[in-house]
């Protein structure tokens, strides 16, 4: 009891840390861990710290919570700091791993991944961005992705007895819902993450690497089919063609009523109900439908990986922490606590009792991430995909606009080609 009370008293603000040694204890080695704000609750970190330090008597955890704003520069500085005072484990966004691996400042964790951590069962949308060549630097921690959030009462009124499982069913149902002053779906014209899923489902890509150079590929037949489906679906509502899902925030639009569906992470339902309490109990979730009923549609998978800096003072201790956080016990506990998708397809049963998270997990099994290159951030900085989408939705020729956008993507990814 004394040890438990001590662990609880040591949690202050955004820092989770063990206090001084109890009488008779030997000296512990400190492992500094940077985790991002809101990735894990304070209570989860308390439980994990207490359990980890009880089962690893030679290690002490110093968990420091970081803000997302400015984190790329802060992580880069930490990776270059040879003072020995930096973090030993860092949480990074899954698509950010290439930014740090490109500098050669991360520990190669391929051996541990294959031998001990069940690499073959990881969600691809988390695992693939963590790779560089044949080396694994980012270890999947948790995932979150978009599902369809829908009004059960409006579906029932339209005579729809179950959620659609194919794209054709989805279009047909959405057309039924788009009547009587209701929007079948609210889909902003520049929701490029959702478009990406449709493109991947068709076998296309946003960009591809050939002969060590990246090229935009929105103008391929497969990518154009994905854009055509997006156009048909977006037309069954009144989403603005020149804005993304945050302008205005789609949760607020949905909360005002007259919208049957949106594509969002399940957690957005909480915001919707806060803004419109009358919708409590009326919201449902289903995976983004695929081309056939055999599997859900492909979705962009967001989430986080854990990395170990080369300049860690204790690589063994750092990998021990990574193993614990990403292992089945604590990864499923995090998923249940925070409504995330666990890092392995084999752990999806842990969240089967939550409708929204279960729908998310079904999609995450077929998730993807943005092109695995550190230059992708330059594409998003002045995103030509958004402009392309708006032009097509306003009636411009898709092939012409896709070629224009692809050239801009190529220029951002390979400046000497653009």
UniProtKB/TrEMBL annotation:
Residues 1-18 form the signal peptide. It holds the Pfam family SBP_bac_1. One of its GO terms (cellular component) is ATP-binding cassette (ABC) transporter complex, substrate-binding subunit-containing. The keyword Coiled coil does not apply. GO terms for biological process: maltodextrin transmembrane transport; maltose transport. GO terms for molecular function: maltose binding. Belongs to the bacterial solute-binding protein 1 family. This is Lipoprotein. It comes from Streptomyces lucensis JCM 4490.
């Amino acid at each position: 009891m004394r040890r438990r009370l001590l662990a609880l008293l040591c949690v202050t603000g955004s820092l989770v840390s063990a206090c001084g040694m109890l009488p008779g204890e030997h000296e512990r080695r400190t492992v500094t861990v940077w985790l991002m704000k809101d990735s894990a609750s304070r209570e989860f970190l308390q439980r994990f710290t207490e359990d980890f330090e009880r089962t690893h008597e030679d290690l002490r955890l110093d968990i420091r919570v970081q803000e997302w704003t400015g984190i790329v520069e802060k992580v880069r500085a930490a990776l270059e700091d040879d003072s020995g005072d930096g973090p030993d484990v860092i949480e990074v966004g899954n698509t950010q791993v290439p930014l740090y691996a490109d500098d050669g400042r991360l520990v190669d964790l391929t051996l541990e991944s294959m031998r001990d951590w069940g690499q073959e069962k990881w969600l691809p949308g988390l695992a693939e961005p963590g790779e560089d060549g044949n080396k694994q630097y980012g270890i999947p921690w948790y995932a979150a992705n978009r599902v369809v959030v829908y009004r059960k009462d409006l579906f029932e009124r339209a005579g729809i007895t179950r959620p659609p499982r194919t794209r054709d069913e989805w279009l047909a149902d959405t057309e039924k819902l788009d009547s009587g002053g209701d929007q079948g779906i609210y889909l902003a014209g520049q929701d490029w993450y959702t478009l990406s899923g449709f493109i991947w489902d068709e076998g296309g890509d946003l960009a591809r690497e050939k002969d060590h150079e990246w090229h935009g590929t929105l103008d391929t037949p497969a990518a154009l089919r994905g854009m055509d489906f997006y156009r048909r679906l977006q037309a069954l509502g009144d989403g603005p063609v020149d804005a993304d899902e945050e302008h205005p925030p789609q949760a607020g639009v949905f909360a005002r009523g007259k919208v049957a569906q949106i594509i969002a992470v399940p957690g957005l339902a909480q915001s919707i109900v806060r803004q419109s309490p009358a919708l409590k109990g009326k919201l449902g979730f289903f995976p983004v439908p695929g081309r056939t009923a055999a599997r859900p549609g492909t979705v962009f998978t967001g989430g986080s990986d854990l990395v170990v800096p080369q300049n860690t003072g204790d690589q063994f201790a750092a990998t021990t922490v990574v193993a614990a956080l990403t292992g089945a016990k604590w990864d499923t506990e995090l998923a249940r606590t925070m409504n995330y998708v666990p890092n392995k397809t084999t752990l999806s049963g842990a969240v089967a009792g939550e409708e929204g998270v279960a729908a998310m997990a079904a999609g995450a099994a077929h998730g993807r991430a943005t092109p695995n290159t550190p230059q992708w951030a330059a594409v998003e900085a002045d995103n030509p995909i958004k402009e392309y989408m708006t032009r097509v939705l306003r009636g411009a020729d898709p092939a012409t606009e896709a070629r224009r956008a692809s050239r801009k993507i190529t220029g951002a990814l390979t400046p000497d080609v653009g």
